[in-house]
Predict the 3D structure of the following.
Amino acid sequence: MNADLHCHSRASDGLLAADILAERARNRGVELISLTDHDDLSALADMRREAEARGLRFVDGVEISACWRGIGIHVLGLNVDPGDPSLVAGLQAIRDSRAARAVAMGESLARSGIDGALAGALSYAGNPALVSRTHFARFLAERGHARDVRSVFQRFLIEGKPGFVAHQWASLADAVRWVRDSGGQAVVAHPGRYPLSEAALREFLEEFRALGGSGIEVISGAHTPDQHDNFAALAREFGLLGSRGSDFHGPGESRFDLGSLPPLPQGINPVWSAW
Ligand code: AMP
Ligand code: MN
Ligand code: MN
Ligand code: MN
């Protein structure tokens, strides 16, 4: 099964609209897809229609910005109900909190001599309520502050660098609860990306599971092959289901295209097996 359960549309920080994304997924052999925009459900109906019209199976998804011990963690909600009131309200609150952070990010960059960043970021945002670091990164790359969008994140927008603003996202407990209460499965997105020691990562997974989290993205576009093995072992150890997601944002910006990652390793129970 070529499942790709993590990608973004223009409703958050992706570059493509739902119809183009679905067409691309079909052309690349994807059989089961989820759209997981950051903190937003607005493109799901379009994406379902476009995917199903092309013979793909589709599940509603979202990538929720959460915090655990002050670290930003992304929780995928897969097979959620986009009409669920507490999920809808929780995501609205996260989106509302982005505006003030974006202003502070613009001010931080201005202190480093880069003017006009907020307006520049907003010009890239399909939805101004969802202005994200990616939109700032596109502006910084366009202005020549980095070679491309990915290399922006070596010098800007990360802890300790210009443009980074610490932010209070949803609690891990709330994020998992919204997903579960809406009938979905909570999955840790790109676990290799967080600044956690081996011990802290285990504590995190323990807590995530105790809160009702059910899976982990073993195969992610953000991971190296070594990390795939490491997270497969952790999925087995913690009894978590495995997921596979490219985290595709757009051509030229993402290392992995839709449906192009290796399959889940043997012995990992896929998160989609119950659907
Ligand atoms: P935000 O939700 O505003 O904090 O923005 C987070 C987004 O920035 C992620 O979803 C990625 O698309 C992008 N991003 C964050 N860190 C990196 C990185 N190191 N390399 C590439 N993209 C990144
Ligand atoms: Mn993103
Ligand atoms: Mn993410
Ligand atoms: Mn993502």
